[in-house]
Amino acid sequence: MVDDTGKLSLDALISTCYDGVLDEARWDQALRDFNQWAGGMGFHSVTWDRARHCATRDSHSLNASPDLIREFVEKLAPTDPRVALMLRQPVGHAMRCHHHLSDRYVARSELFNEFLIPNGVRYTYGLHLDGADGTSELLAILRSPDHAPFEDADNAPELEMLTRHIARAARLRAGTRHLQAQAAMGMSVLDHLEMAIVVTDETSHAHYLNVAAHQILGSTRSIGIRGGKLSALLPSDDQAMRRLIVNATAAMPVAGSYRLHSDNQRHWVVTVLPLRESHACAAPWQRPMAMLTIGELDRRVALGPYTLKVLFGLSPAEARLAQALAEGRELAQYAQDANVATNTARTQLRHIFDKTGCRRQTDLLRLLHAIPALRIHAPG
Fold first, then answer.
1. How many CA atoms lie within 13 A of 243 on its CB side?
2. The last residue of a domain, from among 153, 180, 207
3. Has residue 4 been placed in a domain?
C-alpha cells in the first residue's frame, strides 16, 4: 500500500516485516521495502557464522552478477571492515559506515577503490540482527557514491522505528527457525519408532502420523482418519477417544488410555498423552496438542529410556527414572543405584509428572503400563 505521495505506507511495511517471520518471500519483500524507505540502491543480507567467521548464505536486491556477489561473499566479506563494525554493534542497532570509516580511510582502501566504488557502492546503513544457532544476520542498505550518506535525520523518526521493527521480526524469525528445526528432528525420530504415533489438536483433527501409524490405520477399520479427524468405528469408542483427547489438551492436561471394542480379533488400545510445549515436536502448532499411541496388547516392543524420551520429551535422566519406576523399583532405591540424591530424584519425578500429564506416581505407572506398544520388564 502506498500513501498519497506514492510512497509505501509505514503500516504496510511494518505488517510485511511480521508476515516475514514465517514466510521467506514476505521477508524478502520486507527487506526490499525497507531498502526503498531508507533511500538505498539495494540491500544485501548475509547469514554470518560467528565461530567460523564466514557467510553461510545471503540474499540481495542488487543489480549485480552472481559471480560478483559470490566473490564478495566468499573472498572479501571476511576482511570487510563494515562486517566487523556491524558485528560489534549490539543486536538490533544500526551502523552508518561513514561515522566509522573516514574519507581518508576510504581513499586508501583497496576494498572500496577496487571493488565497492567501481560497482556503485559507497555508503552502508548496516544492521546486526538475531540469527539462529550461533549466527548473526547482517543487513546492509547501500547507497552509491553520488548519493548523500546515511544520517541520523534520514526519514526520522520513521527510519529508527522501522529499524526496531525489522530487528524484532528478525528475532522472531531466528527463534521460529530454531523451533522448526527442532520439531523436524523430533518428527524424524518418531518415524523410527515401531509404535504408531498420531498427533491431533483438541478437535481430533490429525496433524501428523508416523510411518507405523499409516501402516496400522491402513490395516484395520476400528480406527482411522475420516474427514481429516482421527475417529473410531463404534460411536462409544469414538466418544471415549475424543474425551481423552479433550482431557489431554485442556489447561490442566491429563493423560489416559482406552481399549477399543470394535474388533474382536485384535485388541487395540489407544493411549492419549499431552504434547507439552517442552516437547521437541510441539513447535509447529503453538497450541495444545495430543500425542496418541495406537497398538495391540499382544504385540509390544521393549520399554527403554530412548522410547520414553521421544514419547514424553523427557531428559535422559528423567527417562531412566521413569523406566525404573515402571519396572517396579522404589524412588529411594533408584536414587541409590543411580548415585543421585533422593531430592534430585524427586525433582526429576516432578518434571516427569509435568511432561506426562500425571499428578501422582500411581497415575504415571498406570499410564506407562497402559501404553499398548510398550513391554515392561517387571521384577519377579
1. 9
2. 180
3. no
Separation between Cα atoms, residue 184 and residue 161, nearest integer Å: 35
252 and 362 belong to one structural domain:
no
Q: Using CA atoms, how far apart are residues 214 and 220, in angstroms rounded to an integer?
A: 11
How far, in Å, CA of 339 to CA of 331, rounded?
12
Do the domain assignments include residue 2?
no
Condensed to tens digits (0 to 9), the pLDDT of residues 265-290 reads 777 889 898 887 667 677 666 678 89
C-alpha cell at 93: 542497532
User: What are the helix (H) ranges across the chain?
Assistant: 10-19, 24-38, 66-71, 81-88, 103-108, 110-111, 158-191, 211-217, 235-248, 305-312, 316-326, 331-338, 342-356, 361-370
The predicted-structure confidence for 310-359, as pLDDT tens digits, reads as follows: 788 888 899 999 989 988 899 999 999 999 999 999 999 999 988 887 88
What predicted TM-score, i.e. pTM, was given to this entire model?
0.52
The total number of structural domains that make up the chain: 3
* CA gyration radius, the chain: 28
Residues 6+ apart with CB under 8 A from 232: 222, 223, 238, 240, 241, 260, 262
Task: Quote the domain boundaries for residue 336.
Answer: 300-380
Residue at a domain's end among 246, 277, 299: 299
